[in-house]
Structure formats: structure tokens, C-alpha cells
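ERR on first pass: missing label on line 2. Operator R.T. fixed the label and resubmitted. Corrected input:
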Amino acid sequence: MSAPTDSNIYDKICELLKPYNPKNHPIEHSSGIMSDLEVDSVAVFDLIMELEDHYDVSIPMEMVSDIKTVGELVNAVKGLTA
Amino acid sequence: MTALFDKYAPLQARIDMMMKIGSDALGVRFDDILSATRGRIGNREILLAGTNNYLGLTFDEDCRAAAKQAIDDHGTGTTGSRVANGTYSEHTDLEEALAEHFGMPSCIVFTTGYQTNLAAISGLAGDKDVIFMDADAHACIIDGSRLTNASTIRFRHNNPEDLDKRLRRQGEIEGGNALVVIEGMYSMFGDIAPVDEFIDVTHRHGGYLFIDEAHSYGTFGPTGCGIAEEQGVLDKVDFISGTFSKSLASVGGFCASKHPEFEITRKVMRPYMFTASATPSNISAARVAVEKIKSGGHLRDNLKARAQQLHAGLSALDYDLCADPSPVIAARRPNEGVAAMEWNWLMENGVYVNLAVPPGTPQSSSLLRISLSAAHTEQDVQTIIDAFAKMKASQGEMMSGMMSKLQAAE
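pass 2 clean. output:
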């Protein structure tokens, strides 16, 4: 399987974020996952597990602590799938 | 420029909303604690159904006598850590009693339950190890992993197959080991881990299993050792931690291991080394409670009967309960506002339960959480069921009351 593009990853994250974004905040690369989209800290880790399974990668919790925005999450997944 | 506390504005807004609905559910003050099941606020007696006092031993005559005697014998405080200022005989006596109870060669006691997991996990996991933790792990397990330089991976709650998949995905851990951390009974939903299956998966991958039995030590197993004993796999568990602040009717915690080498961690666990050791009275109360637990089949039988009674009663009222009957029974509510409103109603009607809200709960759920005690009578549990029934019948009135309070506060 070829490595996913930024756009593929961004679209997947937007799809997975839907159930955690009941207020339908607009999702941008610069959106703060917790600060703007109001996803709570436990739900962020649930989202990470879904991404791990979709891309068959491990995203350790210590890495997640440094990820604040959707764009940073895209970059992290990109780095792990490259 | 922002002020220091500006970052808490969203949290303050949530608290302000709760205060408009009623009182602060996370800051309850009891004017008196009368027994294991009764408290008093003002002139109102409250039925305690949210104190984790599973065996009701906080007022046990022998536990109280031991605590008082320890104060007379050895004073009120230890004034320092065991590493810097020495160990009391009470500490080692309790460690030996717990080790014997588990049939394990090593046990270390700690000053609180929270510090227990902080200390043990940070002592066990080194830079090259990988921690695998259940997705619903308690904050002290998460914080313990943060004290390490180990990589930490979450697996789906109570799902050994998911753990298996993530261990396989991780592959060979060069120069390190996998430390899998689960709980016996989970504190929010009261659901039980399939410990036997987790042991199989963990050991098949060459890892070590660490189980936190904080809510299950004393309440499960023929001699009260917890879920691992209940499932017949106690001798296969690598590490068992627990707290004194639930069934053991005191304050403190322990970690026992089948590996005698665990003793070396006394020299590296910062939350063990750099804090005052538990007081003689706390340790002595817990020491007596261990014996009560070993012979406490009658207490566990009563707890089980009360759990089944409450679960059946609330189910018959169509409450959405989070798990099968256990000492913790949680009802899922539609949202935080409704849960807070109902929590206040229950308090005003003489029943104390726990309001549990995100992010402290799994699945972003808002809960009314009840913890039962062997000291609860059949009538006590009927009182809880009746209160929930009356509350359900009063929903319309309650909602209009809440709207009035919110409007009045605007």
C-alpha cells in the first residue's frame, strides 16, 4: 500500500472527528483539537486509537501530548506512515 | 496579556453552570460522618452511597482500636520517608501480611493509593520498555506512565484481542519489555476485566501483567484477593496494586509481586522515596482490615446480594446501567446538566451518590455512580431504589425547577 498523502490523512481525521464534534465546529489544519473543537482529553486518545488501527501504526501517548492541532496530527501520521 | 488563571475560564464556566443548578457536587462537605453508611449535612441525615467503603470497615471496632493503639504506641506521624527517616515495625508487618495473603514474596506499602501506581509503574518501566494500558485506566496509571521515559500505548477497554494486536504491531522491543497495565474492577462503570485472558495474551508476547485491584481487593475472590483470585489466576499475575482507602478502611496503598527482585524498586521509586511514609494509625487499621478481608466471606456475600438487589431495582425502573451487578453501579444520564440536576435532587432527598462527568469518565458519559457497602442493609438499598423511582416521577417538576434557577441566575 502506498503511503497516504496529507490530503488523505486530513480527510480521514475529519471523518473520525465527526462523532467527537457534536457542535460541528469548522475543522481546519490550524484547529486546536481540544481548544477549538472541544474534544476532551480522553476522547482525543480514543480518536488516536482509531487512527492507529486505520493506518496500522503506533502513536504513543507521549507523542500525542505534543500534538495540539489537526495539522500537527496530520504531520505525525504522515511521519509514521512514510 | 493573560492572567495566570485565565486558562481555567472554560472550567469555571462549567462550574458556574452547576452552581446555578444546585451545589458543587465535587466539593461536598459533610458536617458529620456517623457510620459507614450515614453522614449529616446541617440537620439532615444522608444515606451514603458513594464512599467506596465496600466492606464498611471504617467504623469496625477492631480497626478503630488498632489505629488508636498505634497512636499511643508510636505517635501521630512518621515525620519523613522510609528511605531517609526509617521504617516502622507497622510498615513491615503490613507488607508481610499482604505478601502472605497474595502468596507472593514481595510487597511494598505506599502513603496513598494514587502514589502507589505512580511509584510502581515509574519504578518498573525504564526508557526501553513499552507500557500498554487499558483505555479506561485510572488517572494514577496515566500519571505513573508520564513519570517514565517509556513509550505508552493504549488498547481498547477490556479487550484482550486488541491488546494482542497492538503487541504484535509493536513487535520485538529491543532491550526492553512490555508492561501491560489493567484494573480488576473499573471504578466508573464497575465492569470487570477478563484477567485470565489478559494474562494469556501478555505472557504469550513475553510481557509482564500489572493489575490494579484498588476497587476489587477485599470485594472479590474466595479470600478477598480480588478479580485475579476470583478467576483462578492469582499465581500468574506479575504485579498487583491496591489501595487502603476502599475495602481496607484507611489511607495508603500497596503493590505486591511474584518477582522477589521487585524489592530493588524501593531504591528508585520517587513517589516512595520522597514523601512521608504512612502513619502508624493508618497502617495499623489496614493491618487489621486485611484479616477481616481474609475471613470476610459473609461481608462479600452481603455486598453481592445488595449489588444484585440495586441492579435489579434500577433496571426495573429502566435506568441505563453501565455494567452487570458489582459493588459499583452507574446509571448513564443524557448529559451533564441533567446528571447534576438529579444529583442535587438526590442529595436534597437524603441520598449521596457520585456525580461523574467527562473527562473523568469513559465514553464522555455523565453518570450517577453508586458504590455499595457490605454495611448497607436491604432496607438501605430499597431506600436508594425508591429515591431513584421518585426522582424519575419528578422529572417534569425538576426540569421546570432547573429552568427557573437558570433564568433567575441570568
